[in-house]
Amino acid sequence: MEISTNDYRVWTEASTIHYEGTMRLSGTDAYAPILEIMNSVLSSKPEVITLDLTGLEFLNSSGINLLAKFTIEIRKQPDVGVRVLGSKAIPWQSKSLRNLQRLHPSLELTIS
Amino acid sequence: MSLANVKADTPQTHEPESIGRLSRHSFRAKFILVVSAAVLFDLMLAGGVAIWNVQRLSKDATEKVAQGLTTATEEYLRTYIDTTALRTELLLDQVFSEVEALGASMQTLIDNPKTGAEIGQTVELDPVLGDTLVFNPEADWSQNEPGESVVSVWGYLLDDQGDPLPDVSTQIADSSAFNLVAPGMMKTGSPKLQMYYVGPKDIPIMRTTPYTDQAQTFDKLYPGHNEDNFWDFFFPGVYESWQSWIENPANRPVPRDIVGTAPYIDAITGAKIVSFFFPLWTEDRSDVAGMTAVDITLDQLSSLVENVKIAETGFGFLTASNGNVLAVSDAGAQVLGLVSVGGEGQGVTGINRFLEQSQFPEVAKLELPHNTGTVIDSLSLGTNPDGSEESYTVILKELAPINLWDGEKIVSENLTLGFMVANDEIYASLTAVQQELTEATQRIVNWQIVVLLVSLFIVTLAVYAVSGRITKGLSQLSHAARALQNKDYSVRVSIPTKDEVAAVGLAFNRMAEEISYHTENLENLVEERTRKLETANREIVDLNKRLKTENVRLGAELDVAKRIQEMVLPRLSELENIPQIEIAAFMEPADEVGGDYYDVLFDGDHIKVGIGDVTGHGLESGVLMLMVQSVARALQEQGDRDPVAFLDVLNRAVYKNITRTRSDKHLTLAFVDYENGKVTLSGQHEEVLIIRANGETERIDTIDLGFPVGLEADISPFVATLDLNFGPEDVLILHTDGITEAENEEGVMFGLDRLSESAQENREKSAKGIAEAVINDVKSHIGAHKVFDDITLVVLKHR
Questions:
Q1: The domain that contains A83 carries what CATH number?
Q2: Which residues contact B131 (CB under 8 A, 6 or more apart)?
Q3: Above 0.90 for ipTM, yes or no?
Q4: By CB atoms within 10 Å of each CB, which of A64, B288, B386, B789 scores lowest?
Q5: Minimal Cα–Cα distance from A20 to chain B, Å?
Q6: In this model, does residue B622 exceed pLDDT 90?
Q7: Sign of the CA dihedral B725, B731, B737, B740?
């Protein structure tokens, strides 16, 4: 599955979800298609879901809200592990991704 | 595009010239022209080659024939002249032989004087053969009565009574045998004018047969001859020459005793003659004893050459080595342009027609051959009346030499036989052949041209017929296209062939059908489309109305939200009343209603400044912000000074309200509490900047001081506080990510560094001044680029 625009691209490879570009969508409704992709991966109940954010240069607060809500959803399913890949070079990630770990302490966060 | 435009674009102005079926622009005419030209070229090439070959053949044949004919003609002429020369020599030889025979008889009598005298006396006694002299006292000569022959005795040989002197009588008697022999010889053999005998120089009596009145004629033509010696008078030099021969026979120019004369007019007969002499010798051969002679007319000689017939007008002529033409026909003389002149001979009157005096220069220049065999030459004698050159072939052959008395002495003479024939006549057959060949060639050429024209005609006819079939399809197409142009859409073509034209025809028919269909249905189509458009338009108008209504509703909703947000923000007067801290705030939402929150709560001695950022914008975010503000105010009024508890309670209240309203929003939220030169930070939000009075800048990370509000039911485990000194002239800056993430056109964010620098540079200014300067920097950074997020800045400066 893949969603691609001029600004960003989101696609899945098995249980890994890749994010790339700049996501500045206007609200929850706008992020719904992306959440759909993420939920479909979750519904397949993989052992570990990987969120690869290393190519995501910018994510607005609605996007961060999306990630937080998705983390809470994963937290409700103890069988599904989650791994988040981030980049130190991108300012918003080092600031916001730690909140995901706080939401779901077993979340494996790698900021390289 | 409107229908009117369509009509205006339809090309109607250029009416092409109509192309007739066989106008010179028509395809058919071009086709016929090309094929005809190809055939014409082919025919002309083939015809040209044929004609060229025929002409070459004709030329070659003509050359061969001319060559052969010329060779044959020359061969013939050579043979002919050789034969004629032989005949001439034979004729002369015969004449010579006869005069020699007569001379030999006389010489026999001289050599036998006794018998001779006896024969003479016997003859004289004969009543028929004997001489009966009759003296003519008036003329003073004696001559016999008419008979077989005549004897004349000149005055100086007679005595006073007119009788011959004794020696003369003896001589007469001794030579009377002439009467016996000569008449017979005269009558037989070759044709001769006369034969005669002349006595020795001292007794030059003259005997002649046949009988003529020779003395009377001499008297008339040669007065004085009766007084002078016969020999000296008539033939001066001949006698002496002979005498010299006795001394040395080698003196003879030609080793034969016969001597000829140049032609002259005979005194007796008046005919043009030549004479041949044969000398007689004394018994002891010590002196000349007279001569026998023969005269032949030139006519007789001429008959030889005049019998020469070559072609039509070719003729022969006989000329002496001095160019004097002895024998030629009158026509021949005319051709040669000869002019007769009187002879200068002493004894006899000559007749001269010299070649060199010919009126034609080429004849006058003619060189007679001498020891050079037969000569063939070509002469041009002016032009014919028809303009062609009058050219002749002349062929000359030298005859065997004879002795000739030239009037003074005896010399060697070579007569020359000549033939002359007009080239026209020689080559008449050649000309005829050429004519035949030319005519044949012309005939072939004519036939060739006729065949060529007929072929061309037939081919053109065939091409015309075939082209009609070939171009019929095109012609039909052309007419159909014109009909179509004239708006006759019913036109269709029918092409029976199975070629490309037929394919075009099929395509044409299909197109015509479509055009016809479209044209006829155009109005229906337009009407249908118009109806559809009208329906669509109505729908759009309706939709537009609905949208307007919706917009008005949404706009009203947003107006309400905006009003609420503005209403809850602290008033300027409130801020100015705060004693220790100077506070300035700036807020600009990206949409009508922003998601940013700030508040300043002051209850007399405690200042609490909050800043937050709700996810998203709009009414829902605004309401959430209002909720947060209300709870915060309530808590502040309750006097809860523990920042951790403050945040925990606030989160619980908001979380529960969010759950109830099924909103999926949350917010970051941080507070700054000021009391007695000290600030306490709590809650997770953007980094807090502190610019110290000395210019030092501190950045305080708030990640570990809290957690997003409204996301979790209990955030107390994550909430912490941080205490910092905040003295006079110190500046504290709070902001939302709308400032640091503001992008310029290149996509470069304003960033914390620029914010920090801008605040640091302007720290001397009042809080309001700092806020204005920083916002200016942010605005100039953004430029004309889009503002994505709400921009909120709160500046605290210690008084």
A1: 3.30.750.24
A2: B124, B144, B151, B172, B176, B179
A3: no
A4: B386
A5: 16
A6: no
A7: negative
Q: What is the torsion angle, in degrees rounded to the nearest 10, for the CA atoms of residue B771, residue B773, residue B777 and residue B783?
A: 90
Nearest residue on chain B to A68, alpha-carbon basis: B711
pLDDT at A69 over 70: yes
Pick from B635, B645, B569, B578: nearest CA to B606: B578
Distances (CA, A) of B214 to B73, B128, B152, B388: 49, 20, 8, 53
* B737 interface with A at CB cutoff 8 Å: yes
What pLDDT score was predicted for residue B594? 63
By C-alpha distance, the chain B residue nearest A58 is: B741
In sequence order, which residues have a C-beta less than 8 Å from that of residue A10 and are 6 or more positions away?
Answer: A2, A3, A4, A17, A18, A19, A20, A34, A37
- Buried b or exposed e, range B70-109, using 16+ CB within 10 angstroms: eeebeeebbebbeebbeebbebbeebbebbbebbebbbeb
Q: Is the Cβ of B666 closer than 8 Å to some Cβ of chain A? A: yes
In the numeric block, the tokens 């700092």 are attached to B770
Strand bridging mode A81-86 / A48-59:
parallel
B591 Cβ neighbours under 8 A, 6+ residues apart: B617, B618
CB B581 within 8 A of CB B574: no
Nearest CA in chain A to B717: A102
CB B581 within 8 A of CB B674: yes
**CB distance from A6 to chain B under 8 Å?**
no
Phi-psi category of B686—alpha, beta or left, where left has phi over 0 and alpha has psi -120 to 50?
beta
Residue B253 touches chain A, beta carbons under 8 Å: no
Chain A contacts of B707, Cβ < 8 Å? 99, 102
Containing H/E element for B608?
strand B607-614
Name the 3-class secondary structure at B198: strand
| Residue burial A2-35, b: 16+ Cβ < 10 Å; e: rest | eeeeeebbbebeebbbbbbbbbbbebbeebeebe
Of chain B residues 602-661, which have a CB less than 8 A from chain A? 613-618
Q: Which two tokens stand for residue A109?
A: 């966060």
B735 Cα distance to chain centroid: 95
| Cα–Cα distance for residue pair B82/B606, rounded to 1 Å | 176
Question: Containing H/E element for B72?
Answer: helix B27-111
Q: What is the DSSP letter of B203?
A: S
Asked if residue B262 lies in contact with residue B324, where contact means CB atoms within 8 angstroms, the answer is yes
Compare B681 and B129 and report the one with higher pLDDT: B681
Q: Are B139 and B215 in contact (CB under 8 A)?
A: yes
In this predicted structure, the answer to whether residue B780 has a pLDDT above a threshold of 80 is yes
DSSP E strands: which ranges in B717-789?
721-725, 731-735
Counting the structural domains of chain A, the total is 1
| pLDDT given for residue B321 in this prediction | 84
> Mean pLDDT of all residues in chain A?
90
Contact (CB, 8 A) for B146 and B183 = no
pLDDT > 80? residue B129: yes
d(CA B523, CA B521): 6
Residue A86: what pLDDT?
93
B50 burial via Cβ count (<10 Å: 0-12, 13-18, 19+):
middle
What is the pLDDT at residue B409?
A: 83
Predicted confidence at residue B4, as pLDDT, reads 40
Element (H, E) at B759: helix B751-761
Q: Which domain holds residue A104?
A: 2-111
Closest CA to B282 of B204, B365, B356, B199: B199
Q: Are B614 and A61 a contacting pair at CB < 8 A? A: yes
Helices and strands in chain A, H and E counts: 3, 6
Cβ neighbours of B736 in A, within 8 Å? none
Tokens of B372: 């050079």
